[in-house]
UniProtKB/TrEMBL annotation, chain A:
Top EC category: lyase
Protein's name according to its UniProt entry: Tryptophan synthase alpha chain
PROSITE patterns attached to this UniProt entry: TRP_SYNTHASE_ALPHA
InterPro entries: Aldolase_TIM, RibuloseP-bd_barrel, Trp_synthase_alpha_AS, Trp_synthase_suA
Reaction equation(s) it catalyzes: (1S,2R)-1-C-(indol-3-yl)glycerol 3-phosphate + L-serine = D-glyceraldehyde 3-phosphate + L-tryptophan + H2O
Source organism of the structure: Pedobacter frigiditerrae
Lineage: Bacteria, Pseudomonadati, Bacteroidota, Sphingobacteriia, Sphingobacteriales
UniProtKB/TrEMBL annotation, chain B:
GO molecular function terms noted in the UniProt entry: tryptophan synthase activity
Taxonomic lineage of the native organism: Bacteria, Pseudomonadati, Bacteroidota, Sphingobacteriia, Sphingobacteriales
Gene: trpB
Enzyme class: lyase
Signal peptide range in chain numbering: none
Pathway terms, separated by semicolons: Amino-acid biosynthesis; L-tryptophan biosynthesis; L-tryptophan from chorismate: step 5/5
Name of protein: Tryptophan synthase beta chain
Record's subunit section: Tetramer of two alpha and two beta chains.
Keyword entries, A-Z: Amino-acid biosynthesis, Aromatic amino acid biosynthesis, Lyase, Pyridoxal phosphate, Tryptophan biosynthesis
Highest taxon, organism lineage: Bacteria
């Protein structure tokens, strides 16, 4: 069992995960942010490796990705930065990024490196389910890496069941069909959708993401899931001159 | 060997649908329905009627006599430049707007580079009374001002793409983001044979009218439906896909695809994808693209906005890898010279994209009497400013 699976076994509510982009605001902030997040009460985190054409992302994460690339970030450098990760951070870590970067690195290499540095899972939004299932599932499993799938309000029940069967940590429930950085829609339709998924009694826990920006939206997501994931709002709050301080300030509202 | 898409959406190693879950329902709906809709007799009837009466098809296959004399071969030009709106792009947008209507969509989005696809999309939206939003790179908006004005006049909203290289690749990203955020009522009319399956296949089917007509016209004009060479320029590859379609399985016909070398393939300012690219995933399909070792997409360069794209469609990647089609490249300057040459020998001002295909004639060796078909994908009106600057007109 990896750290992520353990977390979900031990904690059923109020789980807070934070996304940030590796190499942003400064190239070498990756571990600093990880450490500060753990210290201020995050349950796990998603470290984004940047891509030049992030189609699923809104302006904030497009911006942090571009800055990270301009700072010189690559997947290779990221793994190098994460060499000492497990000496200083104990909470689960996911890597998140687009499939082309993983393909160029090599999927087998990628899994090996993840295991070596202590990464527990990954989210690759544009990796097709069929390709994961047929070509990568075994490799991921051998290295103890959980692959996380996304579900939107338009995802069919049949497909959600299939995703549930392929998942072994949690399912990432998008608050609405949107790029990152939009505000959480807590309208009745969104509530109906969350309730519908909840009622499916899936074998994997749910985390709600996209549009969670503050305590209020975090709390409403918690009504329907084990917890929620915050990305753009956190990335936006990072101050390049005081990274640790800005992490602390942002996290205060949740873990004050 | 098959050069066409298989039931899983692949051409050999290339193709597929590498899309985030947010796009899955839309793309899946399209995948399940496109062939059924396209093959309905009522669809075919309306599609063909519009191509004939609205676009002005069949486009002529014109034996360019003075050009033929110069090169020592019979050079036939497939005159897509004479289509309504001035390029092959409208063949695809007519097909896709009818498909969007069948799917009950109310809002159309598109990306555009040269503006030709944007104009072709805005045109069919005006024709059918549908809302139209076109994404266009900020840089392209500046270098293709007349087309921006045409789109606006046609009632489309033109949204500048300000990320990345601010050209076609980024306009495509923005259109995909729009589609993610509008998952129910919107159809995305992709302008080339790129994107997730079924787009490459669907667009090539709509463009295949080019080679279908060409075969008939060749029989009338030469007595046989197989020429020696068929040539076309490649941005994403839609005019080439349509020009090659019915010749792909005629193994005696040599197919040549011409990419944009920009300032030269080794200059760092180029769009010669097969030469500079590697296998990877861009805009939803596995293909060949220009990228760094880390998998970041490299910004391309070409004097012609329509060829300024860092990838090629997955079918082209397959045709390249299998060697069925020969991929070559032509520089900015060579293409402009070829544009001027055609203008002065034949009285036809070609789009700079199409001029790339013509420019390769300089490199070919003919014994004499070969039949060569070149796809003249568009007219040069939109490029007058570039021609004027380059030739001090
Ligand atoms: C006249 C013309 N030819 C060619 C192209 C390149 O596109 P494709 O490779 O899809 O034919 C364009 C694109 O805008 C164009 O306008």
């Amino acid at each position: 069992m990896n750290r992520l699976q353990q977390l979900f076994q031990n904690k059923k509510k109020d789980i807070l995960s934070i996304y940030y982009t590796a190499g942003y605001p400064n190239l070498n902030d990756t571990l600093k942010i990880a450490q500060a997040l753990e210290a201020s009460g995050a349950d796990f985190m998603e470290i984004g490796f940047p891509y030049s054409d992030p189609v699923a992302d809104g302006e904030v994460i497009q911006g942090s990705s571009k800055q990270a690339l301009d700072n010189g970030m690559t997947l290779e450098i990221l793994f190098d930065q994460l060499k000492d990760l497990r000496k200083i951070v104990t909470i689960p870590i996911l890597l998140m990024g687009y499939v082309n970067v993983v393909l160029q690195y090599g999927v087998a290499n990628f899994c090996e490196k993840c295991q070596e540095v202590g990464v527990d899972g990954c989210i690759i939004p544009d990796l097709p389910m069929y390709e994961y299932e047929e070509m990568y599932h075994t490799c991921f499993a051998e290295h103890g890496i959980s692959n996380i799938f996304l579900v939107t309000p338009q995802t069919s029940e049949e497909r959600i069941r299939k995703i549930d069967g392929l998942s072994n940590a949690f399912i990432y429930l998008l608050s609405s069909a949107a790029t990152t950085g939009k505000n959480l829609d807590v309208s009745t339709t969104a509530r109906d959708y969350f309730a519908r998924i909840q009622a499916m009694n899936l074998s994997n826990p749910l985390m709600i993401g996209f549009g969670i920006s503050d305590k209020k939206t975090f709390d409403s997501a918690n009504e329907y899931a084990s917890g929620a994931i915050i990305g753009s709002a956190f990335v936006k709050s990072l101050n390049e001159n005081d990274v640790e301080g800005s992490v602390k300030t942002f996290m205060k509202q949740f873990r004050g | 060997m098959s050069y066409f898409v298989n039931e899983r959406g692949y051409y050999g190693d290339f193709g597929g649908a590498y899309i985030p879950e947010m796009l899955y329902p839309n793309v899946e709906e399209l995948r399940q329905q496109y062939l059924g809709i396209i093959n309905e007799p009522s669809f075919q009837e309306e599609f063909k009627a519009l191509l004939k009466d609205y676009v002005g098809r069949p486009s002529p296959l014109y034996l360019a006599k003075r050009l033929s004399e110069k090169y020592g071969a019979n050079i036939f030009l497939k005159r897509e430049d004479l289509n309504h709106t001035g390029a092959h792009k409208i063949n695809n947008t007519i097909g896709q707007i009818l498909l969007a209507e069948s799917l009950g969509k109310k809002r159309i989005i598109a990306e555009t580079g040269a503006g030709q696809h944007g104009v072709a999309t805005a045109t069919v939206c005006a024709l059918r009374g549908l809302e139209c939003v076109v994404y266009m790179g900020e840089i392209d908006i500046k270098r293709q001002a007349p087309n921006v004005a045409r789109m606006k006049m046609l009632g489309a909203k033109v949204v500048p793409a300000t990320s990345g290289s601010k050209t076609l690749k980024d306009a495509t990203n923005e259109a995909m983001r729009d589609w993610i955020n509008n998952p129910v009522d919107t159809h995305y009319i992709i302008g080339s044979v790129v994107g997730p399956h079924p787009y490459p296949d669907m667009v090539s089917i709509f463009q295949s009218v080019i080679s279908e007509e060409t075969k008939k016209q060749l029989i009338e004009q030469t007595g046989k439906d197989q020429p020696d060479y068929v040539m076309a320029c490649v941005g994403g590859g839609s005019n080439a896909a349509g020009m090659f379609y019915h010749f792909i399985d005629d193994e005696n016909v040599k197919l040549i695809a011409v990419e944009a070398a920009g300032k030269g393939v080794a200059s760092g300012l180029s769009a010669a994808t097969t030469y500079l690219g590697k296998e990877g995933v861009l805009h939803g399909s596995r293909s060949i693209l220009m990228q760094t070792p880390d998998g970041q997409v490299v910004e391309p360069h070409s004097v012609s906005a329509g060829l300024d794209y860092p990838g090629i469609g997955p079918q082209h990647a397959h045709l390249f890898k299998t060697g069925r089609v020969k991929y070559v490249s032509i520089t900015d300057d060579e293409s402009l010279d070829a544009g001027l040459l055609l203008t002065q020998l034949e009285g036809i001002i070609p789009a700079i994209e199409s001029a790339h295909a013509l420019a390769y004639l300089e490199y070919m060796e003919f014994k004499g009497g070969e039949n060569v078909v070149v796809c003249l994908s568009g007219r040069g009106d939109k490029d007058m400013e570039t021609y004027m600057k380059h030739f001090n007109l």
